[in-house]
Every structure is written in structure tokens, then in C-alpha cells.
UniProtKB/TrEMBL annotation, chains A, B:
The lineage of its organism: Bacteria, Pseudomonadati, Pseudomonadota, Alphaproteobacteria, Hyphomicrobiales. Zn(2+) binds at Q259, H262, D363, H422. This is Histidinol dehydrogenase. Substrate binds at S237, Q259, H262, H328, D363, E417, H422. The gene is hisD. PANTHER family: HISTIDINE BIOSYNTHESIS TRIFUNCTIONAL PROTEIN, HISTIDINOL DEHYDROGENASE HDH. Binds 1 zinc ion per subunit. It comes from Nitratireductor basaltis. It is an enzyme of class 1 (oxidoreductase).
Length: 432, 432
């Protein structure tokens, strides 16, 4: 049964602290295997990638078949349901419109001594996008990763997606095409990450790798970090729903289960100030569970990691929200109450306001990004955005007057650090 | 001797490509040692930290002595040269003024269907700052890491600095105090990173760890990434100076050596369109080398990794700059030529414009940050800024009308992904 906590209970603090540290994923020690795979791909390139694909994906190909062809993409459109293709186009349009507002602005200014400072943003040239195969091969994730890169001005987006036993979700190809992905390779695992980071004869290296994957992919991203940039390491995801009694318990139950059906390690948490309402939601969850096609995933998620927390007032939810630092936060409250809470929250990935904003809308067609910091990492990171695909070049320009004004302080610090050469690079210009 | 390349030579492309991949650091395989240290600190906390400090820093302390006291900070001011303290204060003031302009703005807007979107930026609550001990224990780096965190609104900044044999640079304490660091612990290495990430009885855990360190520190940061955020992994640094013949060769030589004196693995590169000028700079480098107190560092750096590249026109420098993606780029050119080049550069950490902006000013008192992407990582990352200490919460709010408009597309995608529970969370609100 999901855990039940009440802030009014004597042992609350202890139980809540324990709840926060619950491990939801068994960490796999795959570092050594991954290190060997990366070294092998660096050494033998395509040949290693092909061998490893045969081994792990039970799928035979040669170098010329690594890349998905435009014919295959055209065929994928034919296999796809037209209404879904239209829905993906709407999603792309809305994601693009929202992310365009994130493009950061360049800046130049003169300060009070006349020194010029500023910065210029430029796009990363080439980005690799990892898309998982099998059950978690989501077309929506392709859009969420590729569209912001395109908006940022990335010139080349290379996607990799494993095709276990040769099977490839046609909607993933359609989504890649709609998002403007330039190249698609039917490979996955640590070997795909290594190929993107170091390049092979067939695959040119990229500058940054984004996208979720299993433990091997995560370990590979960690190991190639530095050679290329990477996005966050995705953990099991979660939703926290803060709901008062003026909600339909069935709606809230559906939101909790939408999270739970992702993964047995997913977590759904309800915070409410009404004990009866909480009980109604739990009953609704039980009722709806048996109607889900993914019941065998959602049920253990809810049973093992689900929680309801009863608070005396919604106000009391605030510190709990920040400590949970949820990936997704629904505030199913009246407008005023939701907005007031929103302004005071410190740590959350994405906030869904009001009773008509199920988190699922944000997964697909809201326009905001569904790649969000999981497992409490909203404490230190943000959801994916245009910012992840641009970088800032800082600019400094002095004239002789400003150099004279600032020079002596620079020399003093340089000398205190034992860096004579630094001091000289300034003093030589000041005839000191 | 430093390498000499000419774009007009037949073998240029091949030699330049080889130059770009020159390894400047031997990568140390320290992962297993670091993994054990982190596990030990997680298990035994303070006790492990104290033992490891005794072992690696030859320094004995108990839990109550881990933290530097306010008396010690007061004493540090007494030991410090007042002019240097003033210079550090000027530096802090200028760094703060510049970084205030980086604070990002919140946003809320309604789109064409009336959906509300936006985001809110909030600060990371607690940040750990790693400061190396010994020769590379720079007060300027303390300012460059701590001031942006303070400007971002970080509530708690905890600094760690190893004190080999008990020795601690008083200016590091002064800089920490000037920057507003809240806590200072005299520990270093992987054990300090582990203590910051997981906490001990004495040291509360932080949410993100920044600052440079040796191979052990870098490996530890890589391993704790995910549990906490980390900044970039710093590699050996470099300067690229693009200079025409209208420069004083002594000035340019001094700039090249200011970089070379950092580290034997540092790299100084000159690109010029005038062969005689290039030769004059090289002669000036040789002359100045013997006058440097850190000659034994600067000479091998220049000899092993230095380079001059002769181009036919400054225009030709552009693609070379982007491929080098230098940490520091000096454009010692006329204003017009420098500005024109700047607007077209894609990859560089920081650009210093004109003949009176030696890179060293940016190290200390320019106001911009000196923590910059090294070793070609400017292809995918930026210098340290306020952005590294804030994160973005995304906001979405629909009313019934917007949910009706977007709902069917969300349901279509959810069903195509086999996520019935997602579809239901929308359809249940639409009475579908």
C-alpha cells in the first residue's frame, strides 16, 4: 500500500525524511563494461558498433545500413495514423513557439569607467540525440529534444535509436522528420554514445549528447562528459499533486496513475488538506488501476512508491514541496491559492496550475518541455530548453584609460598569486 | 620549439588537424580509488574525512577543527598586504556589477489559444565551492566562483580548501570573506567532494559543487553528478592571440607567456598575417622567458604546446578560431576588424578586444568571469555565470477551453505511445 503521512502526526518529520531518501532504482555497476565499449568504438569505429549491435540488439547490418534512409522515413509516414501525425505536428508547432521565447539576447554595455563588457550567444554546431528503443521509444521525446536544438540554431542533429531485433517505431521516424533531425542511425547503448562522441567512418562526431537511456547509456554519457557536453542524467520520474477538496477525485487519481504507468520506479504523491478527499482519491486510484493496460507497471509503482500526505493547511505544503523538489507539480487549487503558492516555491521542474491542467498536457502539446529534472535534481537543474543548445562568449574591451585605471589592481593580485607573467602582461602596456 | 604552421603550406590541413588533437594531459585512471573514498565518506562521515586528510594532506585535526574560524579569517586579514586586499575588493565589486546583469527574468504570457505559459527562476539553495590547495590556490578564483553564486541568491556557500601540511594561503580566506562565503572547511580531494555531496555530521550537504581541482577532484565530481549538480570539468587552459603587425611584439609575447606560466600543459597560440611580426613575437617570448619566476613551467608549455600560425589574411583566421574553440581569445586588431571578426566567431570562451585588453585583466578585475571552458569545450559550454546558480521552473496553465482545444491531440499521442493512463487523465476531464 502507498505510504500515508500526516504532518500532524508525532513522527512525521522522521517518516518524511525517510520517505525522501527512498531509493527507487537499483544502481547498476556498469562502468567497466561501458569503458570497454567506448574504448572499442574509439579503436575500431563502425566495425565495433556493428559487432556490438549484433550482440545487444540481435540485429545484423553493415556500415552502409547504419543510417536510416529517406525511403524508410517516407514509409514510416505511410504506416502512421494520420491523426497522430497531425497531433505531432501541432505539438511541434507549440513547442517551437514556446521555445522561441527562450532564445537569449546578446548584450554590450560600457560601465562607469568606460570599459566595454558583454556577451554573445552562439549555437552548438552538432548535437547527438539518444532515443531509447523498445517500450520507451516515444515520438514525443524526439520532439522535446530536437525542437529546442533546432530553435537554438544547431546546424546538425544526429539521432541514434536502437532497433532490437530490427524493430523501429515508425512514429519515432515521423517525429524526427517533423522536428527536423538531419541524420538517424539505428544503433543504441553505450556504443551509440561512443560513436556520437568520438565519431566513426560513418558517423561524424557531435559536440553534445542529449536524451534519456538505460544504465549503460547514462554511464556512457557520464564517461564522455568533457569530450562532449551532456544533458542531465535522467532518473525515475515523479509527480506531486497538491489538491484541495474542491477537486474531482477521479481526475486527480487519473493524474497520479498517468505518472505511475511510466515505470515501476515512478512516484506519484498526493498532498491534500482534506482527509476524506484523500481517501476518495485512493479509492479512485484502486478503481482505475484495474482498467489500465499498463496495470502491471502502475500498480507496483503506486504500491511501492506512491504516497498521500495530509496537511493541516495548504500553506503547510510549501516546505514539503521544496524538499521533494518534484519533477512535475500540479497545483489543483483555486487560481489565487495556486498563484500565491507558485511565487514561493523554490524547487520544482514544472508547475501545472489549476484544475484543468493535467500534467499530461505538458508531456505532449502544452509547448513547454517534458524533459525535466527527476529524482530531486530540480534542486540544481532545469528542464531542457534552448539554453542547453547555446553557449555564451564573454566580451571585454578596454582602452588605454581603462587599462591604466584597472591595471594596478590586476598587477597586485597577480603578484600575490605568484604569477609574474600575468603582472608583466599588464605592466608592459603601462610602461611600469 | 613551438610548432609553426602556415595556411599556405601544402600539408597545413593535416598538420592543423593533428595539432588540434594533441593530448596535453595524461589522463589518470583514478576512478576506483575515488569510488572507494566516496563510499568511505558516505559510510563514516567526519571520521573518514579526517583520516583521509591525515593521509593525503599530512595534517591532523578533529571534527571541531574542520571548519575555519572567524578568528582565523580576522588573522588572515592581518597577514595580508592591504593593497592586495583593496585590489580584491575592487575585483569583487566589478565582478558583482557585471554578473548582476546576468540575472535572468521570469516570464508569463498567454498564447493565441489563451493557454498561459512561462517560467520562474529560483536560486540553488546550497553550493559547495572547491578551491585547490598549494600552488593553484588562487584568491581570484574564490571571487570568480563565489560572487556569481551570491548574486544569484544562493543562501549557503560552503567552501573546501585542502591545507597540505596545515598551510593555508591567507588571501584565500580574505577572498572568501570578501565574496561572502558562509563556511570554510580545511579539507580537499575526493573526500571533500564526497562530504559536500553527501554531508557528514559537521558538513551539511550542498546541491551543487563548483570549482577546479586535480584528477581526483574531477573524478569525484563526475561520480557525484546526479546526486548534486557540478560545473564543467576543467582541463588545461589556453590562449589564442590573433594579432596583426600593428602590435608591439613584446606585449603579445607577454600575453602568450601569461598563459604558459599557469601550467606545463597550458597552451599559447599566435595567429598572425605577418611572418616578420610572428618572428619578432617568438624572439620576444624567448627573451622574456628567462626573466619569468615561473620559467620552469612556462618554457615547457611554450616549447611543447605553443604554436604560431601564419595566415594570408586575418579573414583566414576565422575557421581556425572556431576549430580551436579557445578558452581565451585576444583579437589584437583595429577596432573595426576585431568587431567584424567577433560577430562571426562561433566557438570561444571569452574574447578580449583591441590592443589594450590583455587577457589578464579578465582574470582579475575586468568584471567578466575567468572560469571558462577549456580544451575545446567552448564548442558546447559557457563560462561560469549567474545561470550556473539558478534553475528554471516551467509554468503551464490551461482553462477548460484550452484543454478542450489541445486535449484530443494529447490523447492521440498518448494512445500511440501505449500510455492509456495519460490519455485518461485528459479524457476524464473532457467527459470523453
Amino acid at each position: 500500500m502507498p505510504i500515508k503521512l500526516k504532518t500532524s502526526d508525532a513522527g512525521f518529520e522522521e517518516r518524511f525524511a525517510a520517505f525522501l531518501t527512498t531509493k527507487r532504482e537499483v544502481s547498476q555497476e556498469v562502468d567497466d563494461t561501458v569503458r570497454e565499449i567506448i574504448a572499442d568504438v574509439r579503436r575500431r569505429g563502425d566495425e565495433a558498433v556493428i559487432e556490438l549491435t549484433r550482440k545487444f540488439d540481435r540485429f545484423d547490418l553493415d556500415s552502409s545500413e547504419l543510417r536510416v534512409t529517406s525511403e524508410e522515413i517516407a514509409q514510416a509516414y505511410e504506416k502512421a495514423d494520420p491523426a497522430t501525425v497531425e497531433a505531432l505536428r501541432l505539438a511541434r508547432e507549440r513547442i517551437e513557439a514556446h521555445h522561441r521565447r527562450q532564445v537569449p539576447e546578446d548584450k554590450r554595455y560600457s560601465d562607469k569607467i568606460g570599459a566595454e563588457l558583454g556577451w554573445r550567444w552562439t549555437a552548438i554546431s552538432a548535437v547527438g540525440l539518444y532515443v531509447p528503443g523498445g517500450m520507451a521509444s516515444y515520438p514525443s521525446s524526439v520532439l522535446m529534444n530536437a525542437v529546442p536544438a533546432r530553435v537554438a540554431g544547431v546546424e546538425r542533429i544526429a539521432m541514434v535509436v536502437p532497433t532490437p531485433d530490427g524493430a523501429l517505431n515508425p512514429l519515432v521516424l515521423v517525429a524526427a522528420d517533423i522536428a527536423g533531425v538531419d541524420e538517424i542511425y539505428r544503433i543504441g547503448g553505450a556504443q551509440a554514445v561512443a560513436a556520437l562522441a568520438y565519431g566513426t567512418d560513418t558517423i561524424a562526431p557531435v559536440d553534445k549528447i542529449v536524451g534519456p537511456g538505460n544504465a549503460y547509456v547514462a554511464a556512457a554519457k557520464r564517461q564522455v562528459f568533457g569530450k562532449v557536453g551532456i544533458d542531465m542524467i535522467a532518473g525515475p520520474s515523479e509527480v506531486l499533486v497538491v489538491a484541495d477538496a474542491n477537486n474531482n477525485p477521479d481526475w486527480i487519481a487519473a493524474d497520479l496513475l498517468a505518472q505511475a504507468e511510466h515505470d515501476q520506479a515512478a512516484q506519484s504523491i498526493l498532498i491534500t488538506d482534506d482527509e476524506d478527499f484523500g481517501a476518495s482519491v485512493e479509492e479512485a486510484v484502486d478503481r482505475q488501476l484495474s482498467q489500465l493496460s499498463r496495470e502491471e507497471i502502475a500498480r507496483p509503482s503506486w504500491k511501492d512508491f506512491g504516497a498521500t500526505i495530509l496537511v493541516n493547511t495548504i500553506e503547510e505544503a510549501l516546505p514539503l514541496i521544496d524538499r521533494i523538489a518534484p519533477e512535475h507539480l500540479e497545483l489543483a487549487l483555486d487560481d489565487d491559492a495556486g498563484e500565491a503558492l507558485l511565487q514561493r516555491i523554490q524547487h520544482a521542474g514544472a508547475v501545472f496550475l489549476g484544475r484543468h491542467t493535467p500534467e499530461v498536457i505538458g508531456d505532449y502539446v502544452g509547448g513547454s518541455n517534458h524533459v525535466l529534472p527527476t529524482a530531486r535534481s530540480a534542486r540544481f537543474s532545469s528542464g531542457l530548453s534552448v539554453h542547453d543548445f547555446v553557449k555564451r562568449m564573454s566580451i571585454l574591451k578596454l582602452g588605454p584609460d581603462q587599462l591604466r585605471e584597472l591595471g594596478p589592481a590586476a598587477i597586485a593580485i597577480a603578484e600575490s598569486e605568484g604569477l609574474d607573467g600575468h603582472a608583466r602582461s599588464v605592466s608592459i602596456r603601462l610602461n611600469l
